[in-house]
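Format notes (please read before filing issues)

Several people have asked whether sequences and structure tokens are stored in separate files. They are not. Every record keeps both together, in the order shown below: the sequence lines, then the token lines. Line labels are part of the format and must not be stripped during preprocessing.
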Amino acid sequence: MKALLLKDFYVLRKQVWVYAIIVLAWGVVPQAWLNLLAVVYGSIIPYSAMAYDQRSRWDKFTRMLPYSDQAAVMSRYVLGWIFILASAAIVMLSQGILSQLSIPLAFFSALPLRILFVALCIGCLLLALNIPLMLRFGTEKARLVSALTMFLVFASAGALSGLADAESTAPVMPALPVLAVLAIIATAVSIPLSLKIYREGY
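Then the structure lines:
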């Protein structure tokens, strides 16, 4: 799997730098929805990797290489998890640095960690939804699916921003374990489903 991930990073190397700059910019802008969008946005990076693979026929060629079906499928999830976690780390680091500077509170307000945790869960949920659909329909035939995913990404960021801007986020606390369990269950269902679709597609 490490080789497959390394291949994805080589393929996406130019896009990764652009992505890092965008996430960094979103992380320092004093807008909660942009900060949270940076975290959730990592869930769509595997779409770009899969699109490159399908255009270059790598998804066909990989069948002749000594990679198991599990490794081929799991590499997509791991790639998404890496970008989601990296985005959260960039946002947290940016917020931490800004909180130490002499910036008026009206201009900057640190995001609660629980809201970032919710953003991580939403990113994992979107990843669990996106990968099986991409494997089933392909990136070219699934443009409506990708459009729906982008809509969900922006809608999720907007909804989370509303929670972050609310005067009291106490009602969110009981829902955190439920959301975490939901993300785990969705991932546990998505992985074998993706593996089944991957095996039946060839």
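For reference, the curators noted about this record: The two ends are 20 Å apart (CA to CA). DSSP finds nine helices and no strands in the chain.
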